[in-house]
Design goal:
This protein folds into three domains: about 220 residues, no CATH class; about 80 residues, no CATH class; about 45 residues, no CATH class. The model has no long low-confidence stretch (mean pLDDT about 85). It has eleven helices and eight strands. The relative contact order is 0.11. Helix 4 packs across helix 8.
């Protein structure tokens, strides 16, 4: 029995690793090229993206390659009548199937970890690479398009001569009480200071316009600084998104979010009571209250998303077990040596039913219309279908 189990497990691992290597390399190339083309990254920075893109690629490829390995190995064994021979010797098909289920359980736990690693460390790392290369990105775009802009910062130039920007127009958006600023100069040079986290701009001979109200000219060299997070398109000024929060921090974030919602509701209740006490009933139906309700609704949506994230990542990770649970018995049941036929007959229902149901559960849970555990519905469906197939394989 142990020899048979080791044989099946070795075949599964061999096919799985070969398929995983090829498919993961394709996904990494797609992710890196997409990010590089969007951000105009130089080659050196593109290579730095690869380690951070690896978890993102693996979390998508591991379940599919495990399904491919199961259908490949068991389709060959069933088509060659190895399963029939085992039954003739009094060996249950479960002896052949347990290695796939054990491997799938292990890979499910690994995939849960990869899901958490990809959305936290991986995405943060890719964003950090883009932010740290902001000066090279700006120069690259100015050479080709003569303009560059982010959420708070924009540059237009007549041309670029090496590192010199000829006839640049540089604009900053206003924030709070700080007015917007537009500077025109004869030339400028950009210099990144990673230690201080700023992009330094050295301008020569130009004029300054502050929101059209205050103007002035300068001669010689004028230095300006802007945070690299403002200069980069990859920056995010808001708090960390729930979808990018590590699992270990979600529980604490849920507690904070509940406190925020409670404080918001208490403030609304106190304000409503005060206005009713003063007889100011018209303000209770004003646009001011619509805005306050909108703020509270946004906070509740963030809470729903935080509550959904652990279920989403665990259910996505355990898709490995669900895919193997249905793929291995189906390949045995079909008795077709062409593993591609077995794979597509198994993967097509997953593609048509599993993923749309997963998206429906995630969207409903994030909006609060469905409970967070509803994202497990697609996994439960595969488990039921796999149990039916397994019963037929073991019986016949």
């Amino acid at each position: 029995m142990r020899i048979l189990t080791r044989y099946v497990l070795a075949e599964l691992i061999k096919v799985f690793l070969i398929a995983l290597t090829g498919l993961t390399m394709i996904f990494i190339v797609v992710i890196v090229i997409r990010e590089a083309s969007q951000q105009n990254l130089p080659l050196a920075e593109v290579l730095r993206l690869i380690p951070y893109a690896l978890p993102e690629s693996l979390r998508m490829t591991v379940p599919v390659t495990l399904l491919l390995a199961c259908t490949s190995v068991y389709a060959r064994m069933s088509g060659a009548n190895e399963v029939v021979a085992a039954k003739a010797l009094g060996i249950s098909p479960m002896v052949l199937l347990w290695p796939a289920f054990g491997l799938a359980l292990f890979l499910s736990l690994v995939t849960v970890w990869l899901n958490d690693l990809a959305v936290s460390w991986g995405r943060d790392g890719m964003q950090r690479v883009v932010v740290e290369a902001v000066d090279d990105i700006i120069y690259s775009m100015l050479r080709t398009q003569r303009r560059y802009s982010s959420s708070f910062f924009a540059i237009n130039v007549k041309r670029v001569d090496g590192r010199r920007l000829i006839m640049p127009t540089i604009s900053w958006q206003g924030r709070g009480n700080d007015p917007g600023v537009t500077i025109r100069a004869e030339e400028a040079v950009l210099q990144m200071d990673k230690a201080e986290g700023v992009l330094k701009i050295f301008l020569r001979n130009g004029s300054v316009d502050m929101a059209g109200k205050v103007g002035g000219e300068f001669s010689g060299i004028e230095e300006r600084e802007i945070p690299i997070t403002d200069a980069s398109r990859a920056s995010s000024s808001g708090p960390r998104s729930p979808s990018c929060t590590p699992l270990r921090q979600i529980a604490a974030e849920v507690v904070k979010q509940r406190a925020t919602i409670q404080r918001c509701e208490q403030e609304m209740a106190a304000q409503a009571a005060y206005q009713m006490l003063c007889g100011d009933f018209d303000r209770l139906t004003s646009a001011e209250w619509e805005g306050r309700r909108g703020v509270c609704d946004n906070e509740r949506t963030t809470l729903y998303r935080l509550l959904t994230e652990p279920h989403r990542r665990w259910s996505a990770g355990f898709s490995c077990l669900c895919f193997a649970w249905i793929g291995a018995p189906m390949a045995v049941w079909l008795r077709n040596r062409d593993f591609l036929t077995s794979f597509f007959l198994c993967f097509l229902p997953i593609l048509v039913v599993y993923y749309p149901l997963l998206m429906y559960g995630i969207d409903g849970a994030k909006s609060g219309t469905l409970p967070p555990y509803s994202v497990w519905g697609c996994n439960a469906l595969l488990l039921v279908a796999g149990a039916w197939l397994l019963k037929r394989v073991v019986r016949y």
